[in-house]
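Could you join me in thinking about how sequence relates to backbone shape in a protein? We need material for that, and I hope you will provide a protein of your own picking. Once you have written the record down, we can walk along the chain together:

…
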Amino acid sequence: MRPVRRGKSPQAMDFDPYDAAKPFLISRLGSYCSYCERRIATQLAVEHIQPKGLPAYSHLIGRWDNYLLACVNCNSTKKDKDVVLADVLLPDRDNTFAAFEYRQDGSIVPSAEAKAAGVEKAARHTLSLTGLDKKISVALDENGKQIAIDRVKQRLDVWAIAEDAKQDVDTNPGNDALLRSVVSAAKGHGFFSIWLAVFRDNVEMCNRLIDAFEGTRDSLCFAPDSALPVSPAPNLDHLPEGGKI
């Protein structure tokens, strides 16, 4: 889950209607779901971290600090579930890249770092909150062929694309045009954490990816010399319950 910095609100008052914040969020965070990391060219929603449907959080409907971006899958799974900030890891205040391990089989699990930091339960709760811990869903077409139709399959597909790109980079070291094309491919597909996991041994490529995805470098969750995750997150905007990892 890509750590980001949303920064201070672009206006002094709350947003009314709340979706007026959408262009500012996309400008600062990119056209990606803040949870599953997919690129969503259209129908990307302004996501209320603490849900607008619960009366306890009605005062946060227009509040900039309560916004992320979400796809329809993550948004509908999260729905109006109560979000206790101390019990989850959030990309605008925690180093969520350090908290999760993305695997080649498309699964996402709490990382060794999360376990060492004592936030494994919060990591699992975060995955459950948005359905990122679901198993792959397979349907049959009219010919009886199995078709994987969910976010797990998309992660599998992008992992394979990233692996092919890494092979090209490894066989053509120092090819700047190739590196730029790989960054473009990563931005086009989304799934930042998969690309960073695949290229973890290539510091230059990791830094290019960190710089390319909006709001990521600004989080200060990656060391510029090594591209390794910085933990705990600096939480520069002093958001509540931030910096748990």
Remarks:
- Residues 150-219 form one domain.
- Residues 180 and 208 are 8 Å apart (CA to CA).
- Residues 151-171 form the longest helix (21 residues).
- The chain has a mean pLDDT of 94.
